Amino acid sequence: MFTHIPEARVATYSNFKAADGTTIDQGIALFFPAPHSFTGEDVLELQGHGGPVVMNMLLMRIVELGARIAQPGEFSQRAFLNDKIDLSQAEAIADLIDSVSQQAAQGAMRSLQGEFSKKIKQLNERLINQRMYIEAAIDFPEEEVDFLSDGRIARNLDELECALKEVLQQANEGALLREGITLVLAGRTNAGKSSLMNQLSGRDSSIVATIPGTTRDLINEFIHLDGIPLKLVDTAGIRNAGDEVEQEGVRRALVEIENADGMLVLVDLQSTKDWQEDLTSLIRELPDKEKLLVVLNKIDVASRQPEIPKHFDYPVTCISAKLGTGMSDLKSLIKAAFSLDLSEEGSFIARARHVEALTRGLDHLQVGRDQLLSRGAGELLAEELRLCHESLSEITGEFSSDDLLGLIFSNFCIGK
Amino acid sequence: MDYPKQFDVIVVGGGHAGTEAAMAAARMGTSTLLVTQNIDTLGQMSCNPAIGGIGKSHLVKEIDALGGVMALAADQAGIHFRTLNSRKGPAVRATRAQADRQLYKQAIRGYLENQPGLQIFQQSVDDLIVEKDRVAGVVTNAGIRFKGKTVILTVGTFLGGIIHVGMQKHPGGRAGDAPSNRLSERLRELPFKVDRLKTGTPPRIDAKTVNFEGLDAQPGENPRPVMSFMGSQEDHPTQVNCHITHTNARTHEIITRGLDRSPLFTGEIEGVGPRYCPSIEDKVVRFADKNSHQIFIEPEGLNSLELYPNGISTSLPFDVQLALVRSIKGFEQAEITRPGYAIEYDFFEPRDLHSSLETKHMPGLYFAGQINGTTGYEEAGAQGLIAGINAARYSQQLEPWCPARSEAYIGVLIDDLITMGTKEPYRMFTSRAEYRLILRQDNADRRLTETGRNMGLIDDARWTRYGEKTELIESRKQTLASSWCQPGNTDVETYLGQPLSREYSLSELLRRPNVDVSSLLRILELEWPDAEVNEQIEIDLKYEGYIARQEDEIERIRDQQEANIPDSVDYNEIRGLSNEVKQKLQDVQPETIGQAGRIPGLTPAAISLLLIHLKKAKQLIRRSA
Fold first, then answer.
1. Phi, psi torsion values for A371, nearest 5 degrees
2. In this predicted complex, what is the ipTM?
3. Which of A143, A322, B315, B417 is the most buried (most CB within 10 A)?
4. b/e per residue, A343-367, with b = 16+ CB within 10 A?
5. For A345-362, how does the pLDDT look when each residue is reduced to its tens digit (9 = 90+)?
6. Closest in B87, B91, B576 to A95, CB measured
7. B160, B184 in Cβ contact below 8 A?
């Protein structure tokens, strides 16, 4: 990653390099040789430019070089066990580990939502199924279950590899990091969607006019929200469209909403007396979306300040898209809703852990397949699949050899 | 009366666990007493007449490497040897011997009777002598009191045993022997957790009444494998064939009609049976779509006309047994010599044991074998050996010893038992071992002989031969690494099927997937006898990368494995642990941080909290330090 080892205890401005020699980021490297470090072990500290995309690349590069992502609270734990932290602080450290590991668990849960979780589960089941056949062949060679010598295993391994690659790709994409999140701007015609879009992007991409139905096409805009790519989709205003062109716009809006990660629902405060009632009827017309943020627009021309109940069903904020007021509150709201606030471990690290585990799993799977095909070494395939499964278990939870035996006994008639 | 002599180690039970326990303790120089109900049944194979098998021969060879007698006896009694998984790579290869029951018993009895320092006494044990909460000896049914510093209980299925044949049941150990109910009651008074298991055997068949014509004969393996490091093919008696037959639709119909009188299906039997060794009625019900099941017909001995039909263990009533047997090809005219039966028996929660197999509730008392919820001669023998070693070490005031999971299947067996307990009769499988590529049957000697020697278990003959073997391995390895093959060596290139691009050392060539050592030696006209030495070299080279990786992993977690948790730790005091985790720790009372981490449901964060607590209480002691 460096051309040479950074000097001890000196801040060195360096290029952080990828495997192919290209620069991932530039920043400060600080090397603290043992025992003069926080943990009492050799510690290398890298300060980069931030932004989850670059940070993720840097993290993956470090992992590729043999490091692993620390367990929650592990640094403090090591410092403590190496006598770097006072015994009197034991309780504080214990509390820290407790709370950080709870946060990590929450982060993992957030990362494991929706489609991604489903895919991982399916993948895991397929892997377990393969292992069941292979381990049965090894442990019960006289039971007419010799699957290793039949061609199906190789084919199944190919399929498994494809599935794993697909999940991995999705984990990277859906990571909300590389590709970012997609947000749909929804709301009634003339609620100010295009203005908000321009406000967020700082560009005049939507045609802004006060004639209802001006935006007849979808307009996509990529913006950066503190380094997180955010894809905004401005939809044709939803209303009972008159002409065909507009009908097409409405149809496409509904498709975009379906595929997006979340939705900003814009309510026009100027044209409504009861914004909540307006919102309710609007939501009824929209497809179901798990993540829904409510933006009350035109606060500058509203007849009165809107009342926002304390425990409202959705996150709400007020803005004036025209003047640009309330924009930073809106950004915080989005970040919070998608757990993109990087001041906490949150889902960023959780997802990075998942990607790391999947990458390791894929590696073992590929080596195992080669072992079977080039050497006919079923026991080495079994070993690689065990390691692959161990990696996946970091995401899906414990799976013991006894669980595996249980599956073998319930699926095959074994027993002399 | 009080017996005039005091012993270091008293072993109760003369089965496979008791044998290895008594032999190990005596070999280590402690005065040892073996008390058995019946001297004539020492070394009895009460179930199928076979030693070894997948995962099991690994245990046998480990027992052997620690100086035990199971493998030696198997070589003297084996009438049919097979290598299992011979085409699947050395790590999962296994050896199995069908044994002549009489020869096996005779061999075991010979070893026991000739072992210096070991006394044998026939009487059943009714009670333990307890002094100051420690075990201090045993009392026999005739009231003879034997005092001893340690007691090892290896009483198998004799505790609270009930035998079922159909709806009839009667108390019993194995068929023909009485159960030890007095002892069972005594142990139930102690705070041990007791549970119930079930196992079964098939009806035995008179060979004279079997028609072998048309049945598949299964000859033994050629070349014939040997079980013991000190054994040889010359030890083996006459070899015989096994045969294979199958159940059929009619058999299954007979079984189905008899289910209303099956103790298994009418709820008579409460104990949990092994999933991997179901009765034939269980197989027929659970796998209804399979219309045939395999049966291995195993001879019971050279001079016995009994056959063991492996695969039709049953507790159906006798009339159903007879009908189902006679529906099977080859058995049309068969006579049953002994009915099959199911047996329910008590076992003691093995999580109440230390890794030394000493009980947590009574210092000096050790449990080994089926009493701990395992099944199998090999599993029993392995535990007996460890209990024997540790009882001897206890009496010599030495630290206990148990191999790690990375050292031996014995370590996997004991760690699984004391960490997770068991819900069914526990049996070894290779898939239970995470270091499967290191724990091979072929290198058991290299893994354990030296440790065994240091503990006084290994005699000079074995030690010398072991030294010669390891030396030969090293010197041949060096020869291979420093011998080179030049491009243009047509013999070698023809063998490889491609030209050599550069000079290669012989070790490099051997690492290649399709190169095997014997072919290479033949081509190079090297005369290297001792095939097992050459095999070791080849395996070392072929598995090199995997072995290195597993060794790295072992090294990485060594600190945790060796960090002891003192008995005095109060899990309730540990901040941040959930009640569930506290309860789990309390149940297992792990000996090391490593073991704690293997308790199902213990997260890394919980382990961190435990570590910090121990450190704070200054209770963190490194075993190696």
1. -60, -40
2. 0.90
3. B315
4. eebbbbbbbbbbbbbbbbbbebbbb
5. 455 677 778 888 899 999
6. B576
7. yes
Among B410, B423, B418, residue whose Cα is nearest residue B274: B423
Please state the pTM of the whole predicted model.
Answer: 0.83
Angle (CA) A281-A286-A288 rounded to 5° is: 115
Instruction: Compute φ and ψ for B190, nearest 5 degrees.
Output: -80, 160
CB contact at 8 A, A414 and B276: yes
Measured distance CA(A348)–CA(A176) in Å, rounded:
9
What is the token pair recorded at B618?
Answer: 């200054």
Instruction: Please identify which residue in the block is written with the tokens 């003691």.
Output: B348
Please compute the mean of the pLDDT values over residues B178-197 and round it to a whole number. 80
Chain B residues with beta carbon closer than 8 angstroms to that of A416:
48, 277, 294, 296, 310-311
Nearest CA in chain B to A132: B431
Cis peptide before A35 (omega within 30 of 0): yes
Of B296, B437, B576, the CB nearest to A98: B576
Amino acid identity, position B273: G
Specify whether the CB–CB gap between B298 and B308 falls below 8 A.
Answer: yes
Contact between B393 and B369 under an 8 Å Cβ cutoff? The reply is no
Using CA atoms, how far residue B262 sits from B256, B605, B616, in Å, is 10, 49, 59
What would the pLDDT profile of A273-296 be if each residue is shown by its tens digit? 788 888 888 888 777 777 788 999
Mean pLDDT, residues A95-111: 73
Burial status of residue B273 (CB atoms within 10 A of its CB: 0-12, 13-18, 19 or more): buried
B437: amino acid identity, one letter: L
- How many angstroms separate the CA atoms of A93 and B611, rounded? 11
Give me the sign of the Cα torsion angle B261, B266, B268, B274. positive
Which tokens sit at A245?
């062109």
How is residue B88 written in tokens? 């699947």
